[in-house]
């Protein structure tokens, strides 16, 4: 049997399109990476067996055995029960009923298994090996189709009493006629700062805008736009696109500042597809962040872009296993 | 030497007017309580010696010795350095320079000592023996001259990287022409929901109000009002006072909802002088809270009034000592 320090971790990042895997050292260095397509047919019943097969097959390929691993960590969409290791309501996986993920993967691989939701796991990854510099207090937000968050404080994730800790996408940022959110309330950050939210803001501001603007013309011509197009046009100084970006980044800066006024993390890390807008986004969010933070928070909490990209999930998942199974 | 389980805790609540003391069991039951006036003369140099004297004198009175105690916990105004056990910038104590509180009290009493800021300590007290029901996740807000907060998550206080965790009084709740706060930014919760903030809101709304109102008449007559007077008039259905209370409780509900969207605590506990308005306040805050919380948070996080009153500080201080020194 391998020495504890030589043992490895397996990180799994379960998404609606692909399932990413990695084998990592206890220090979080990735040694192997691979991925498979997510087969969501038949109510997602193929997903867990395909994860088990992918791990067992890969171990055989490398001539490795289960006892050389500390365990498996995984990030999953949907509502995760940490204790039971089950998932329910992951609609992009067609998982409508309770899935016994931990039970099945432990039986199928002979390894210990731990699970958390995908935004939390990405937060752990960015905190451990990315922009979070392994600090004890890191706030993470992911701007994608939706807006998710993961909060690390005193070195641990904040789940709250019922697992809704970190729902920064559902912080109310607009109290005057805010958009209706899929969650049922109005004015959530997600309604204006997700990829779809940014497009919604652009469409509404275009209706009121009467000047020259490529963005306005594009929308008037009935062409599809994306949040990336809005940011690209803003970078080219399109006046309407700049107004949209200002509005969106003001909301983001407000929500992140208010999170930082509560948590005073070392870093607020912005990830997800929308964060590809880079420093152009960061500079504007940071301005609104500084305008809304308590002085000592302004001086000690820094806003940053995520650095790990797609790897945040598998790295954070590996940290989960390390935290759970290494004493 | 006494058995560990028989040992006692000392809790100290240092305020600008009085210093409260209590001797408690390890279960948090108060056995003795006393207090002394705070002597802030001579740059507050009498404060620490008077704390030491008060403890030593009381122990002598009860024929007790230092080794019968686990240690002393204390809550203090100002900026507290937890590790060093020092305090600076407690202006209501005239403490402008660094105070070596831990060093001096440990030397003077022969007991171990631990300190945190007063809002955090009150939060710990309410969480342990009050409305927080000893849950692992409790958010506490105190509405007094200012607005303070203490956040407990995963069973521990959240201090953040530089001690500003829990600054809920400086969460931005008004982004359109919010009042200037003493902290230098605009629209902080404290500017509208502290005792002085409520009076400010009342004065401004009275200027615009043209109907019949005892509150308006009182202000027009140049009489002084207080937040208590505003709430009392609202309870008597004064139309302007009701508008003021609605505005204030909407801001409070928004800020507490957004904190709960991040932390999903079991309880959000409202304490401090303004909370004496009781269920009249709570009902209105809760309505705004529910309008701004993510569904799963709305269902699992409850807003409550604090129950310990003035004793929250000494009880929370005792918990600090228990947490620090009982392994």
Automatic annotation (TrEMBL), chains A, B:
SUPFAM superfamilies: Actin-like ATPase domain (SSF53067). Its EC number is 2.7.1.2. The keyword Transmembrane does not apply. Keywords: ATP-binding, Kinase, Nucleotide-binding, Transferase. GO terms for biological process: glycolytic process. GO terms for cellular component: cytoplasm. PANTHER family: BIFUNCTIONAL UDP-N-ACETYLGLUCOSAMINE 2-EPIMERASE_N-ACETYLMANNOSAMINE KINASE, ROK (REPRESSOR, ORF, KINASE) FAMILY. This is Glucokinase.
């Amino acid at each position: 049997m391998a020495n504890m320090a030589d043992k490895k971790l397996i990180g799994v990042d379960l998404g609606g399109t692909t399932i990413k895997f990695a084998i990592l050292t206890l220090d979080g260095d990735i040694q192997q990476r691979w991925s498979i397509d997510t087969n969501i047919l038949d109510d997602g019943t193929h997903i867990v067996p395909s994860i088990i097969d992918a791990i067992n097959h890969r171990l055989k390929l490398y001539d490795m055995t289960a006892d050389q691993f500390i365990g498996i960590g995984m990030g999953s969409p949907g509502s995760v029960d940490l204790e039971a290791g089950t998932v329910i309501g992951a609609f992009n996986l067609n998982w409508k009923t309770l899935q016994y993920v931990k039970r099945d993967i432990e039986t199928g691989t002979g390894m210990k298994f731990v699970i958390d939701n995908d935004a939390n796991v990405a937060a752990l990854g960015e905190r451990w090996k990315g922009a979070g510099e392994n600090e004890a207090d890191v706030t993470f937000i992911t701007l994608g189709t939706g807006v998710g968050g993961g909060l690390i404080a005193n070195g641990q994730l904040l789940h709250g009493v019922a697992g809704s800790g970190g729902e920064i996408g559902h912080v109310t940022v607009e109290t005057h006629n805010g958009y209706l959110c899929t969650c049922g309330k109005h004015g959530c950050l997600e309604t204006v700062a997700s990829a779809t939210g940014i497009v919604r803001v652009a469409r509404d501001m275009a209706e009121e805008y009467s000047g020259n603007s490529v963005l306005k013309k594009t929308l008037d011509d009935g062409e599809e736009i994306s949040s990336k197009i809005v940011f690209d046009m803003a970078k080219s100084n399109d006046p309407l696109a700049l107004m949209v970006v200002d509005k969106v980044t003001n909301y983001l800066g407000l929500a992140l500042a208010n999170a930082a006024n509560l948590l005073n993390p070392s870093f607020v890390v912005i990830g997800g597809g929308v964060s590809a807008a880079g420093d152009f986004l960061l500079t504007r969010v940071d301005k609104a962040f500084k305008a809304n933070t308590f002085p000592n928070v302004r001086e000690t909490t820094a806003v940053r872009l995520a650095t790990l990209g797609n790897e945040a999930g598998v790295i954070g998942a590996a940290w989960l296993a390390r935290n759970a199974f290494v004493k």
